[in-house]
Amino acid sequence: MNNSFWDSTLGRFRLVAIIEGISYLVLLGIAMPLKYFAGFPEAVKYTGWIHGVLFVWYMALLLKVWIQYRWSFGKVVLAFIASLLPFGTFVLDSKLKKEQQAADA
Fold it and tell me: Whole-structure pTM over 0.70, yes or no?
């Protein structure tokens, strides 16, 4: 069994998915209110940029996982949709943790 997220492509995807999900929640829950209620647009500018980079990284790893683990098209679509929903990547991670444990066994 792998001890680190970095030991496999699926582990790296899970880690990036969690970080991307956190950045999305920060963007929606902190940066957007700062922009619209406190007149601080820089919060969205910088948080949005970071989130965008993480989203691109998530998509690149999703493509790699799709190919390496031979995921179905439907599973890839669900992983994409998870990235668009608040808390979606956390729900996805709970499912992928089981898959990673089975793959590592």
Answer: yes
